[in-house]
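Agenda item 2: coenzyme A complex prediction
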Amino acid sequence: MSGPFTIRLARPVDAEALPGVQTSAGVLFRAIPDIAWVADEPVDPPEHYRPMIARGHVWVAEDARGRVVGCLFGEVADDAFHILELAVAQEAQRRGLGRRLLDAARDHARSQRLAAVTLTTFRHVAWNGPFYARYGFVELAHPEARLAALVAREAARGLPHRIAMRLAL
Ligand SMILES: CC(C)(COP(=O)(O)OP(=O)(O)OC[C@H]1O[C@@H](n2cnc3c(N)ncnc32)[C@H](O)[C@@H]1OP(=O)(O)O)[C@@H](O)C(=O)NCCC(=O)NCCS
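Presented output:
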């Protein structure tokens, strides 16, 4: 893994690298006792990402050797671009790639004249709620039905302290 890093739209071939990025990123959760188990959750296989890549809704961070070390993917939902996942491989974390991937999704949402970027995340994890808040996302005290349903589904899976956040564009 070596910089400089490039952020770009994902190509179909990148799908192969995304499960590995997700698994590596997830290791970070082992440090948080009540959600350490999240690190061992299965990740989606390459096929999962191909339709999103075809729609232009997946961005990757690539190192100088062309290795994919980060990704962000999502979908358009109502008037927003909803981030389904943001992940940076362990060895590439804390170099600003998470923020740069967010920039790419935000810029895309703006170019599509969407009203917001939304996501759900952990309130109590430093690289989740507080990280997004610093970026400008606001925790929704009363999320709209779409986001409330997501938070409820995540709580039913046993995920604690889930919140919905929104970045107005
Ligand atoms: C969230 C994530 C993508 C951020 O990627 P990144 O490339 O490290 O992001 P950045 O370098 O732009 O900034 C991350 C910020 O999160 C916080 N952070 C990251 N790792 C941290 C750690 N181990 N302990 C405390 N704070 C941490 C810091 O505030 C950091 O900014 P700083 O380095 O300037 O202090 C990455 O931490 C990750 O893949 N996490 C696991 C998966 C995940 O939580 N995804 C989000 C789901 S909603």
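Discussion summary: Residues 123 and 129 are 5 Å apart (CA to CA).
Owner for follow-up: CH.
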